Amino acid sequence: MMPVVALVGRPNVGKSTLFNRLTRTRDALVANFPGLTRDRQYGQAKIGELEFIVVDTGGIDGTEEGIELKMAEQSLAAIDEADVVLFMVDGRAGLSSADEGIAAHLRRCHKRTLLVVNKTDGIDADSAVSEFYQLGLGEVYPIAATHGRGVLSLIEIALAPQ
Ligand code: GDP
Ligand code: MG
Question: ipTM score here?
């Protein structure tokens, strides 16, 4: 069985961009439009020698109603079925209360979770990641999904035998 990696986080942090990079497809809709991916989206990913299933989600922002509530439910289902969760945050926007709400859920889940700070291209990665340690999820991994920086080493760590 291939491991299942879920991409979770509030809208617009770059989940679909990372999904596209991992699957090399245009299947996930990427736009500067929060919440465009309404449902879970599955893809077969290959990076280096590593093969896995990656799950894109619409995003959670902690204030869900209507269609957004459905998206949040999809994210919770994706967390449930994953072997590893990549919890993505936005290194340019900084820490938000939505991030704190998601982190609180993930700490309760006891699911293997890596905290990923995206959009670290062109900014100082060390200072971008520092505030996210307070989410209480351990190590923080900087990446740039658009450029691929940090992605291979992130996946190697995510899929390393425990
Ligand atoms: P999602 O809502 O979490 O799926 O986010 P998207 O993948 O749709 O990306 C939202 C916006 O962030 C788009 O305009 C992307 O081009 C941009 N974005 C994603 N990853 C990066 C990155 O690594 N660096 C920068 N600078 N922008 C990014
Ligand atoms: Mg998306």
Answer: 0.99
